[in-house]
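Hallway conversation turned thread

IA: we were arguing at lunch whether anyone had actually written out MT21E methyltransferase end to end. Turns out nobody had. So, for the record, here is the sequence (223 residues) and right after it the structure tokens. Reply here if something looks off.
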Amino acid sequence: EDEKIVAEIMGRRFFPDLITHKTWEGFHFAGHEIRITEATDCYGAVVWPSALVLCYFLETNSKQCNLVDKNVIEIGAGTGLVSIVASLLGAFVTATDLPELLGNLQHNVFQNTKQKCKHQPCVKELSWGIDLEKNFPRSSCHFDYIMAADVVYHHPFLDELLLTFDHLCKNDTVILWAMKFRLKEENQFVDRFQTLFDLEMISNFPSLNIALYKAMRKGRMKA
């Protein structure tokens, strides 16, 4: 079953027929052909399998997880694939990442959502743990969903990442987080995450070493 679903997920990816001056990959999600421009010299500008897993879940569970008119933020959006799919499914999306990634992120989001979405998504800088109240004040920012794909890997900002989840998450916010398990230190982040949030694994793909989680603030998990 794992291999069958993984084959379906990975089958959503396609590649250009001709060599071009820009590196890009194509994907089929939400009834659209999505073309993502990548940069092979930067982790944040490559589409990782966790993003495909999350996009596949959003599309195939659109009734259970209805994004129409929902306010969604993606942290560590990278190339923007998850944000694009959420937008095509009807959400109002804020795609965020580091300042050096915003140009490519903006390009991908604009090219794949213009005149195709109910709500035009926006792109905004978010450096984990920095100026959170200034840029995303608790009093005025309310997100129905926080989405994240492959944000836990070998980097020195895991404390800041947890702080960012905590700041953005209200009592009724749902976190959808796809994670590839790699090293022990990074995997321990899950234990730390669970001190603040109730965590439920909703999909698991051993062949990819990826799990998809749903989380809510501690004590507020809904059936």
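OS: looked through it. The chain has one domain: 1-217.
IA: good, adding that to the notes. The domain at 1-217 is CATH 3.40.50.150 (Rossmann fold).
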